[in-house]
Amino acid sequence: MLTIFENVSLSYGQNRPVLSAVDFALPSGGFYFLTGSSGAGKSSLLRLIYGAEKPSAGRVFLFGHDLSYIARAELAGLRRQIGVVFQDFRLIPHLTALENAALPLRLANADETYVQKHTRELLQWVGVGERMNALPAELSGGEQQRVAIARAVVNKPKLLLADEPTGNVDDETAIKLLHLFNELHKLGTAVIVATHQQDMVERFRKPSLHLRTGRLTPTAVRAA
Questions:
Q1: Which CATH number goes with the domain that contains 70?
Q2: Residue span of the structural domain in which 194 resides
Q3: Distance between CA 181 and CA 175 in Å, rounded?
Q4: What is the DSSP track for 109-126?
């Protein structure tokens, strides 16, 4: 299993419970939609998976490691195997779209010829090929999101976590991006896509985890 939650709860202070007694396991190569209304805990659950948050109770395992006891350097190594699409994009402002998208490959010391070719092709595919030399401040919200998605998938991670990845793009682009995630899944990447767009969930017919007021509902996992 790539990640396991054992009776995980998360609270921000005594009066702000976010997740309550969450149990689930994501197998290698699995693909899940994570659904739920705003405030249900979707983003918090994703942050727990990649170690940006620590649970108030219970245990989170990532690639077989208990994140409660892992050293910071080891956690950094595990994170390099994860692609994350954040809601706020988190592009580096002084780097171009190309440089932002290529960053995971360069951190992995990939051959520069491959970095250039693969990153340029990917940016073309997600629809920002004409904007690859622009800085984030010069891009629209949708363009920034597509660059963030390219950065998350450029090194073909073991696990992809996408937090509302289609929230700032039109339906045609959203479908194209989800097809990209599905192609990665076919190549062995496990995928969790947090979304409120039920039409996309129904279109792609993947198993779904549903959060309601911090709990996974009894009908959380649906067969594809």
A1: 3.40.50.300
A2: 3-222
A3: 10
A4: T--HHHHHHHHHHHHHHT
| Whether the Cβ atoms of residue 148 and residue 130 lie closer than 8 Å to each other | no
More confident residue, 114 or 29: 114
- Burial environment of residue 17 by CB neighbours within 10 A (0 to 12, 13 to 18, 19 or more): middle
Q: Which residue matches tokens 């051959």? A: 111
CA-closest candidate to residue 105, choices 126, 89, 88, 122:
122
What's the rounded Cα separation, in Å, for the pair 47 and 192? 12
Run of H or E including 107:
helix 97-107
CB 208 within 8 A of CB 223: no
Total of domains in the chain: 1
CA dihedral 92, 96, 99, 101 (to 10 degrees): 70
Confidence of residue 220 (pLDDT cuts 50, 70, 90): very low
**What is the spatial distance between Cα 88 and Cα 86, in angstroms, rounded to a whole number?**
5
Predicted pLDDT at 2: 87
**Predicted confidence (pLDDT) per residue in 139-173, tens digit:** 998 899 899 999 999 999 999 999 999 887 888 88
Q: Are 79 and 52 in contact, with CB atoms under 8 Å apart? A: no
What is the pTM (predicted TM-score) of this model?
Answer: 0.89
Per-residue model confidence as pLDDT tens digits over 16-27: 789 999 998 988
The CA-CA-CA angle for residues 101, 102, 107, to 5°, reads 125
